[in-house]
Amino acid sequence: MRIDLHPAYVLHRRAYRETSLLLEVLSSIHGRVGLVARGVRKRAAETAALLQPFQPLMIAWAGRGELHTLGQVEPGAWRPHLASSKLISGFYLNELLLALLQRHDPHPDVYQHYDMALRQLSGGAAEAPLLRRFEIRLLTACGYQPIFNHDVVDGEPIVPELIYHYRSQHGPSRHWPDVVNDDIPIRGGTLLAMAAQDIRSAADLGDAKRLLRSLLAPYLGGRAIVSRSWYVED
User: Fold this and answer.
1) What rounded mean pLDDT belongs to the chain?
2) Helical segments of 106-201, H only
3) 139, 51: one domain
């Protein structure tokens, strides 16, 4: 199988043998893909320099099985300018993608969300709203559609002034017959802000972060998200 040049980002890289790299990339067409970049650390320093996280690329590859062989590499059409303070958020996005996406499962919508998030980070966008929005979109794209706009027990619309208990794998309600330890109390106004993907106030952002961590946890398979420990507020 041979794949022609198309857009991609490197999510992770590590040394392989003496001169090569092992890459996990997010392809605009093929989703997450594992690649071997053979010999690039020795004879193609320019190519190795391109193969960095957060750099838009055009790549080609060939091969079968789980790991393919990287072919041609070209720089993408735009150049990011992630300030050092934004890099932690970029690495957090990469860790989420590596944890939630299976190899060779196409997700062009996820690629578009990721590309937009990097462009916004590069442009100086506020990180917390951007990260919460990306988490919601990633869960939705992977088929774990969170419910934010109605009570899952009685079907009534969420009322901003009321407090709901959000139960993982189910959704929010005021009518659970009992409260379990994993239920998360959250204001209706926060849920509606999350439904609109327009979370602005500090209180809403804090509650949305807590809820989304709970919703992501079952899909991480116990995998620790290392970049979370780098944030000062954590």
Assistant:
1) 92
2) 108-122, 127-141, 188-195
3) no
Q: Average pLDDT for residues 63-67, to the nearest whole number? A: 86
User: Partners of 6 in the beta sheet?
Assistant: 59
Clarify whether residues 192 and 164 are in a common domain.
Answer: yes
| Its pTM surpasses 0.85 | yes
Q: Among the three residues 75, 97, 118, which one is the final residue of a domain in this structure?
A: 75
| Closest-CA residue to 98 (of 37, 189, 2, 9) | 9
Question: Which residue range is the domain that position 197 belongs to?
Answer: 85-234
Strands 184-187 and 163-167: antiparallel
CB of 47 closer than 8 Å to CB of 59: no
Number of folded domains that form the chain:
2
State the CATH number of the domain containing residue 33. 2.40.50.140
Tell me the per-residue pLDDT of 9-50, one tens digit each, with 9 for 90 and over.
999 999 998 889 999 999 999 999 999 999 888 765 678 889
CA 51 to chain centre: 19
User: Tens digit of pLDDT for each residue in 126-138?
Assistant: 999 999 999 999 9
Please say if the pLDDT value at position 233 is more than 60. no
- Burial, 161: exposed, middle or buried (Cβ in 10 Å; 0-12, 13-18, 19+)? exposed
Q: Which residues make beta-bridge pairs with 70?
A: 61
Q: Which of 75, 104, 136 is the last residue of a domain?
A: 75
What residue type is assigned to position 6 of the chain? H
**Rounded distance between C-alpha atoms, residue 29 and residue 171, angstroms:** 32
Separation CA 56–CA 26 (nearest Å): 10
Please report the pLDDT score of residue 232 as a whole number. Answer: 53
